[in-house]
Design brief:
Helix content: 25-40%
Number of strands: 7
Number of helices: 3
Oligomer: single chain
Distance between the termini: 33 Å
Length: about 140
């Protein structure tokens, strides 16, 4: 993550052990259930590709893809996303920390504009809402 620009960080405590949260982010069958995604392919290793089709409210389907920049099991994912019109991928950091039988998760990103940051922060909060509901149901 660069040090200049417009950034955000969202931290939540999830009522699930870190291994369960890691699996939700790294297993395609689980990711699709909570992230409103279809056609999920995850090759979770540094340089590994991922892709999915996000289904947003109203039924619009948005194809997404990228590569993993960093993978530290049960601790950290740095996920690159291809963004049309940008040379470099947008990077999202997913940091996990065990907190007893709970997990503290932090999503963070840095952007070149407040508009990009605000849109991504909104989307990240939606992801975390979906993840929280999924973990509560399993």
């Amino acid at each position: 993550m660069t040090t200049a620009g417009f950034d955000y960080a969202i931290t939540r405590t999830l009522e699930a052990p870190v291994e369960q949260v890691w699996a939700a982010w790294t297993r395609a069958d689980l990711y699709g259930q909570w992230a409103s995604a279809e056609e999920v392919v995850l090759d979770v290793r540094p340089g590994g590709a991922w892709s999915s089709v996000m289904v947003i409210p109203g039924g619009t389907r948005v194809p997404l893809s990228g590569r993993y920049a960093e993978v530290v099991e049960n601790k950290r994912l740095v996920i690159g996303m291809t963004v049309p019109g940008r040379e470099e991928p947008a990077l999202m950091n997913v940091d996990l920390a065990a907190d007893g039988d709970h997990t503290r998760i932090t999503l963070s990103q840095t952007f070149e504009s407040t508009e990009e940051r605000d849109q991504s922060e909104f989307g990240s909060n939606m992801l975390l809402d979906g993840l929280t509901a999924f973990l509560a149901a399993v």
